[in-house]
Amino acid sequence: MTCLAFSRTVGGLTLAVALAAPLLPPTLARAETVTLKIAHFLPPGAPAQKQVIEPWCATLAADSNNQIKCQIFPALQLGGTAGQLVDLAKNGVADIVWTAPGYSTGRFPVIEAMELPFIVRDATSGSRAVWDFFQAHAAKEFEAYKVLALHSNGGDTFHTAAKPIAGPDSMKGLKMRAPTRISAKTVLALGGTPVNMPPAQVTEAIAKGVVDGAMSAWEVVTPTKLQEVTKFHSDPPKGQPYYASTVLALLMNKARYSDLPPDIRAVIDRNSGAPLVERFGAVWDGVIAATKEKVVAEGGAVVVQTQADYDAMRAAARVVEEEWVKEIGARGVDGAALVAAARALAAR
Q1: Which contiguous run of DSSP H or E holds residue 332?
Q2: What CA–CA distance (Å, rounded) separates 256 from 285?
Q3: Is there a single domain that holds both residue 161 and residue 43?
Q4: 162, 147: one domain
Q5: Do 105 and 140 have their domain in common?
Q6: Could you say which residues form the signal peptide (predicted)?
Q7: Is 304 part of a structural domain of the chain?
């Protein structure tokens, strides 16, 4: 209980009156709503928003008695490029961003080990591997952020307009959009010409013949309408790792997180990290399977490589890993050990 006191003058006499009032519980007394601004680079209908970010926000709201709300800004509505989203989070323009660290070339070199060719085979096991690798080897390069999740896109493959990519020779002479530095090196090693451009520009570029196809995840095919301008979609033999992959991240402004009340931080903590990584992985694998079915239903072809072609492509791309080990070694980091760790985690 708490007392509210006031005085009143009656007939020249001053009367003091004290009223008892109940003390409100702290959560009700504060009644503060925390709105988190979340930005990403894909359209609002993309699985990242509809199947992961929005349900995650709903969970935060329910777990916080509706004290946490989200305001989502898809398709770079807060400005900048996909590669600049990490700075939007770091500088507080957005509270949280979902993006690919690899879009910001040179900023997150260690986590690139999980993007090297022929490591990730699917989104669920790949995402677990990325999260464990981050915790063991790459936490330092993300220390400017509160890391809510790091996951894998399940693998990057080839989507082409005029001819399928079967073996290394079929890539020669083709201009291919590549999402990251590592995927660009992979395209180059296989005889193609890598072209860097944002996901939103890829479909138009293929339609106009600016590029012949794209190295991209299955997950972005339908959000960007890539299946409307490509006919052939390559896949490795069943159960084999993909040609490269892209690490994706949900990053929060560190000061914004630290300034939140402890109970709000606790809600975010128990609904992020490993549980959120699992959801990303499961959703991505579901979307990959559904996208392949949609592509075939609309007249496209999923071209599964022969083991011989796959092995030849893998041998041709080995130079990408060798160069990366040398590059990271120049920073005083044991690249070979990181690659071994990445492969071991992804193979579990």
Answers
A1: none
A2: 32
A3: no
A4: no
A5: yes
A6: 1-31
A7: yes
Report, as an integer, the average pLDDT of 286-297.
98
Return the structure tokens found at 190: 């296989």
Beta bridge partners of 196: none
For 123-143, how does the pLDDT look when each residue is reduced to its tens digit (9 = 90+)?
A: 999 999 999 999 999 999 999
CA dist 210 and 161 (Å) reads: 12
As a whole number of angstroms, the distance between CA 252 and CA 208 comes to: 38
Mean pLDDT of the chain: 92
Contact 82, 43 (CB under 8 A): no
Instruction: Measure the CA–CA gap between 299 and 1, rounded to whole angstroms.
Output: 72
* Cα 348 to Cα 346: distance, rounded to the nearest angstrom: 6
- Do 282 and 138 share a domain, yes or no? yes
Question: What CATH number corresponds to the domain at position 62?
Answer: 3.40.190.170
Q: What is the C-alpha end-to-end distance of the chain, expressed in Å? A: 58
- Same domain for 121 and 50, yes or no, is yes
Per DSSP (E only), the strands in 202-283 are 213-217, 232-235, 247-253
* pTM score of the predicted model: 0.90
- State the DSSP code for 44: T
- Condensed to tens digits (0 to 9), the pLDDT of residues 40-91 reads 999 999 999 999 999 999 999 999 999 999 999 999 999 999 999 999 999 9
User: What's the number of domains the chain is made of?
Assistant: 2
Q: Is the confidence at residue 8, as pLDDT, over 90?
A: no
Report the pLDDT value the prediction gives residue 9, as an integer from 0 to 100.
Answer: 43
Same domain? For 226 and 331 the reply is yes
Quote the distance between the C-alpha of residue 224 and its chain's center: 16
User: CA-to-CA distance for 177 and 42, rounded, in angstroms?
Assistant: 17
Instruction: Tell me, yes or no, whether 135 and 181 share the same domain.
Output: no
pLDDT of residue 1: 41
At 135 the three-state DSSP class reads: helix
| Residue 310 buriedness (CB in 10 A; 0-12 / 13-18 / 19+) | buried
- Provide the β-strand partners of residue 302: 233
Q: What is the domain extent for residue 316?
A: 156-244+296-347
Q: Are 210 and 86 within one domain?
A: no
Phi, psi of 80 (to 5 degrees): 80, -170
Tokens of 260: 């939140």
